[in-house]
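Re: the pair you flagged

First of the two:
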Amino acid sequence: MPPEAGVRVTWSRRADWSTVAAVALTVALALGGLLYHGQRLADEQVQAQRRLAVAETRHNAHLFGQTLSAVELSLRGLLQAAAQDASDEARAQRLREVLHNAPHLRSLSLLDRQGLVVLSSNPANLGVKVDLRGFLPDADGGEPLLRVGRAHVGRDLVDGVLAGGDAAVDLGFVPVLMGGGAAGPGVVATLNVDFFLNRLMARESDTAWAVDLLRWDGALLLSTRDADPAAWRRANQALVRRWQDGADIGTLLQPMGEQGTWITAYRSDHARPFAVVARVDEAAALAGARAEVRRQAWIVTPLIGLAALALLGGYGMFRRATLRRMRVQAEQVEQQARLLDALPAAVLLFAPNGRALQINQAWRDMARDAALPAALLGGPHYEALGALYQGDDPDAPTLGQGIAAVLAGQADDYQGSFHGSASAGPRWYRVLVRPLQRDGRRCALLLQMDVTAQRRSAEALRLNSRVFAINAEAIVITDAHNRIVSVNPAFSRITGYGADEVLGRTPSLLASGQHDTPFYRAMWTQLLEQGSWAGEIINRRKSGECYTQWLTIHVDRDAEGRPLHFVGLFQDITERKRAESQLRLLGAALDAADNAVMITDSRAVIEWANPAFSRLSGYSLQELVGRRPQDLLSSGDQRPEIYALMWRTILAGEVWRGEMSNCRPDGTPYHVSQTITPLADEHGSVRHFIAVLEDISERKARELELRRLATTDALTGVLNRRAFLEALEEELVRYQRHRRVGAVLMLDLDHFKLINDRHGHAAGDVVLAQVCAVARERLRRTDRMGRLGGEEFAVLLPDTTREGAAVLAETLRHAVAGQDVSTAAGPLNVTVSIGVAAFGPTERETTPLLGRADRALYQAKDEGRNRVVVAQDAAATA
């Protein structure tokens, strides 16, 4: 269909949807207005009920607050009168007088300090004990306060039971207390719950409502409800949390389980421990508003429907008349459009003003493919069209200039080659412009032919020829009879034969004679059956030298599957085969080596390891490859600075040598002497690391044993005197650098000479060894114990305060004294005296520190032995 008719039809469908949408929108707006009006009514009803609930809480809080104020005055007066009246009769008379004018009270009773009723307006209450712990607020020991207790079921104190469970209808009274307990005698009044409920129930309302009186802790004092289910108790506890957060007054909506949502208003009294909560059933409050909305909807909705039907009917009549006119116009131009659409070339007819009068389907397809702007799809101006194309001849007139010359009568034709952009890439066109008379006006008829396929075919042929010539792999093409028809320069470079020497001959001229007839027969069988063959083959150059090549042959077949050509690609792999042989030899040598060898990439990820490395580390090659040595081998005993130095060295391209402590999968530690050599590429960047490792575990074990023998006391296993003093000097250096605390213990066995004299030196040696064992069990890994001589020992306690050292010393003293040492002479009991000295602020030498600890030790001995003495600070001693 021509573009004019297509545009009008599209407009007609849009008009349909637009009209329907407009009518639907009008109906939606009307219904929305009705819903909005209903929502406004509901909101106003909710706000009205909220204000009534707020007024209810304010009124009842005022009523209950005034009642409690009156009760407080009465109870305060009774306390003062009880102190003045001498006789119980006078006190009882006063109780009856106060109760006579107080319908809100059930009874008044005087309590002793233990909460026992000693006098009451209700004689049945005498002797009843009142629990003074359940009242709020808590007594502060000052002026007596009015305190409110929990609600009770029953008539009075004598039959009162603390309320609980879901029932609320049986609440009988609420006790309020003044005084009592440590403050002295008290007065308790029982508030008449029925009095307050009668006041609350007197409110008339057609809406479901409820009023609760709560203590600050959420305990229910009285309620207009018949029951107190769990949902209401949870709602009241939520209000308690609000009061605790400081929200004394407020309103909110609360879900009440099966009873729906209720509008809640609350007010907490600042002076008294109670709060009033008024609730209105939201559903009952909204019932009237919703009924009014339904009534209005029954009236307004039919009117809206009738109006919508009237609008749609009028539009339908208008639409039918318009479509009849559009069909008549479309029939007049349909024949011309069909002729143009049948042409394979894009056709545009330009009017004298330069605007396109008519375009065909080929142009529209081309425009969509080129992703032209929407403004150019319907009827572009020739200047806009000319701006889209660039001419292949920069000296020729542009497309816009050529069309303008034809329209102005300055030229009878115009043609040229152009290119432009499209979604699939650039495209090339051949354009021809001729004049055409239409309705007495000179127009320009443009024919545009897409020549992209021809252009690309020529370009692909040129490119393939270039690739064929510069390919690094040798290419040889033979015909169906295996005669060479083409070779590339790489073929001549590898074989030594020029193209003129091999054309028309078969590739057999390259045969080396090292492959037998079955080899070639198998190659041809696979090639003809599967269409390709690839493998190694040894051929001979023109010079007579044999070389190894990797040859790939593909079959080019015609439409019936008959071979047309054979295309062979090969590369000289002689050097690679020689390098592979050398690598195999090197690999065999490394596999046979006793030293462990490992190769990693630049990120220290293992790429290869020899069998000796697997035997040393305990990991198989499969477990090692792809992992980092630090993740698998690290024992955790190596200092971080050693790793830092190693990485700085090898990343700088230098060889690193050192010793490492590693760990096998089963946890067995071992030591290695390790050499790491970085390997750089031609640009100097490190690409691999080669590590050679030698197991030095036996040597390290011998060195460790020698160090142990040089630093350890052979009898007790603790440090000898020289090793202990060196450790103490090192700790003092760290103390001065970091200002950390520390302390020293001096220990001496009491009466040890008597043990040697009575039981022999063998028994004495057993005692020394056992005492050291007991002490070492109670020391940390960082603590050091040394034997200074004979039965005298010292303990170094890093990061320990003087107080902490004293506690440890007492622990050691008790542990030594609490055990019997088994010897050949029988069990022996020994004790130890201990001196404690803490590091001083300027402590630099071991001698003063040990001297202070030694003086404290001898002070312990002078004071009776088997005790701990803490030396004074270094500053105090000085």
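Second of the two:
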Amino acid sequence: MNVWQLVKVHRGTALVLALLSLSASLLLAALPRGYERAYDDAVHGMLGDVSAQTADLGVTGRPIVSEALLTHPAEFRNRYEEIAKGLPAQLRKVVVPLGQGTSHFGAKTTGTPVSDRIGGSRRSNQYVDFAWLPDAASRVNWVKGVPPGASSTLAGVPGRPELKDLTVIEIGLVAEVVDEMGIDVGATLLLGNSYPVAARVTGLYELTDAADPYWEHNGEVTRVVERPIPGSTDTEWLTAGLISDEGLAKLDERREVSYWWVYGVDRNRVEAAVAPAMITEIADYQRFLGDLSGGGVGNPLELRFQLWTGLDRVLGDFLVVLRTAQTLLYLLLGGLAVVALGVLALAVQLLTERMRAGFSLVRARGASLPHVVRTGVAVVALAVLPAALAGYGLSYLVPGPSTPLAHVVPVVLTLTTLLFAAGRLALAHRRPLKDTRSDLVSARPSPRRIALEFLVVLLGVGGAYLLRTRGVATEAQELGADPFLVLAPAGLALAAGILTLRLYPLPLKLFTRLAGRRPGAVPFLGLTLAARSRGGAALPVLILLPALAVSVFGALVSGAIGDTQSRAAWRDVGAPARIERSAEIPEDVVAKVEALPGVTSVLRAGKGNVQVGVGGMRATVLSIDLKDYRELVDGTPLTVPDPPRGLGVPALVSATLVPYKEIEVGWHTRMTIRNMGRLDELPGLSFPGENLIVMPFDGPKRAGLRTYTNILLVDGDVDRATLERTVGLADAEIETYATALDDIRDTPLTGAITVAFTVATLAMGSYALIAVIVALVIGSADRAKALSFLRTLGLSQQQARTLTVLEVAPLIVLTAVAGLALGLVLPLVIGPGLDLSSFAGLAVTDFPLTFTTPALLAAALTAVSILGAFAHATAGRRVTTALRVGESS
């Protein structure tokens, strides 16, 4: 038989099969590529949210004997290259060369106290360290004095006769030390207690670019840090100054010196696909540094190298998010693949039905079964293979890296289609001249089929149970998701399809009996045709059911994520808008905010971090009118407790402060607050887990001062830009609910999941419509024969169309109900195994069963499918004609 001739004769059906193959191959190859790009954007975003100190690879070595000291820049460069030789392949790809980005080396001391000032008054609790940073020279501007130069020797220190021939290291400090620590150019500091050294301040500098990531590794030279001393009410000040190459030579092992080699990571080069390998390589690199320690000869007294990085932790957190995203992707791809395979199988069934008569004839004339199967498969292959290849090629138009899934899925789809064609042709033509009316024969399923279906249902239910109790991840993180559990939703859909097919005749018989008792014949005849439909019910069920289930599941997941995102935004801001400042907000600014159009109310509050007179603890103290705050957030997810009442300064306190009836705090003045109850947190105004004290807004006034305002909670419709222009304070932090919600939503993975669910829903809805039409076309010959007899008995053309619709309506409606039920169950099954907090801002604890959107989806899919059947019945020429004299069919 001529294959090309068969394709030409059945070109319409072959074209439909080709278009379906092209679309399926395009979707199933493009979605993984798009998702992989979203994965890369997500890992870049997570790395962009952390400091360079966390993302880069920092190697430190500390000399403990003089033989291990490095005193010249060339020695640092040689060690940099030596350490870099051990970088594994994936880490080497993302590390930028020395001198670029944040890659650099240096030497620093730690915890050096200012024990005295030569020629000046002594101040306590001050620390000044040395920092040799050769790359810092081009990143600072000297605003006073000159850069540090060569070291010298001080013969003696007035008042300290024991100190003779003291080394003097020239040092440059950040300009703010003048105000913060009282140190200016020309000052000579005595640093250290046991082995003191003198530091002469030669100049003051400012940073040329404070936002340069380079300074994130060297923050101690950029500012003066003021921090409370634990267990005390005193404060200490810390900074570090730059020294020259000559000063480096004077840093010995007694100075608590450490050497640093920083290998800057280009975060945009990190790919999601190699994240597990990079985590493994970081562990391997740590072992390499351990082997390298001791100078290569095993001397434990030389430099001991240690790796400092948070890259593996960030990538580990990303992999947790990635597993959730991949699970959703697999669910979408699985549902879409099942639907696409079902539609392709229907199209193959239609094509083989069209070739049935010809193949039966050549089979009767002696053609072998392999010859018939080869010819039929060749016809299908000519339609499927070029289209699948074209779809795969078009998928490269979608931005994103190639993935194994994008290569494998189209191949599996094509091979499955060809195997289905071969199996169907072999079964249909295994015996010559075997052509019976399947609509009149109700074959009982074989024991093997019953056992197989029972096994499928058992595996589907068992997989769903394991998925709910264990989640999708294996115990070993590097192994990723458990393939069996990832396929559990598809198995559950297949089990639901089998149950639907087995239970489908029961309601159909009931409806047929009820229709038989009514006077009109059309409903009874339509339901009878549905029961005898030769088009078959298995494939349409396997198409409609997962299509609707995935759509409903997507709607519920999207709804749960959206609700949680809104709750997270409210918890972050604490009001429709919040204006916060460390210093007091001026009254004229408050008046301007209150006068803004759209602002309905402004609630004042005070906030500070205070020392608590109990065990040296610190706490966040808030002064706010909780009654007014409750009215402001009424109708939001936030809950506000009753305000504290009582004499003096009543307050609500967190758990660690509950045992104390009265607590002394220092906030603007010393005051004693009275514990009136427990309060764990106040979202938007405090961080979870911190010590918290909430008093009335007039609490400071009750203590003898006045009210204090550095927070404004704004109610009304006003955007962030307007508030920023109105406030006009550079140090004010302004947040709105709308911007917080946008920040949570505008993440690569959240957008990718939304787009993927939308594309999958539209694609599966289209496939469902095509499936109904193809199923009708498959059964058109038997339907035309039955309707021709009925037309002879007086059936009108309109009644014939109604019968056509009624033939598929029961299957569509019952399958839609099953798909809706499965879609509502899937979140309960998969939800506990998914960590959606990265998409929602908070942990998604439940999936509310809202029936509105799922019911609308089910109704829409049902309506579209039935309308497709009606369009098929009404389009083109008349449905059928009555038999003429002498005709039997």
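Residues 335 and 546 are 6 Å apart (CA to CA).

-B.
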